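Example record for the data management plan.
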Amino acid sequence: MQVSERRLTVRLKRRTNTKAELVAAAVRLGARGGPAAITIRAIAHEAGITDAAVYRHYRSKEELLCHAYALIIDGMISDKQHLVTSDAPLPEKLHEWVRLSYASFDRDPEAFTFALATPHVAPQSEHVATTGHGGLFLELLERARAAGEVRPCLPELAISLFSGLVLSVPRMINEGTLEGPAGAYVDEVAAAAWRIFRPASVGNEADSPV
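Corresponding structural encoding:
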């Protein structure tokens, strides 16, 4: 390899590593301090670079946040995509969705909190209620509705009820009012989710989702 080629390779690696460090810094700040803590100056300080260096990689704070959000959410979608087309009954799908969600939180609480429990510009710009992670769940629910597995429910209400229930466990763990890991609560939360969506014709004996 020529000297110039080696130098180019090093510069490209540094650029990639710096972008990853900026994303990680933004995620840490957002998860710990909320949206007010995420500023260009704070991100630069957390990543150990200058403010100007941040703008060499991202045109704005919003672009950085959207990139960080997309990286995390894309991973979650990839983990759960198979549930939409699965032939399993809805109670089992809900259980697996909750299990995967809490495994993600237990693996990286800051990334999970940043993407799903921190209000910031990225989710609104992605119209998260109808696309992305939320859209995937609505697609799963629509297939279940077509199969007669759920009671009629407005999509906006459905996603609000389900997300509020699922996110309550990570939120309480973050606040210190509930002992982790989140995975210990999968069965209880999945059963509660099934009670939200099950048809009126299904009795209490079907509370268990597994």
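Summary line stored alongside the record: The chain has two domains: 1-58, 66-206.
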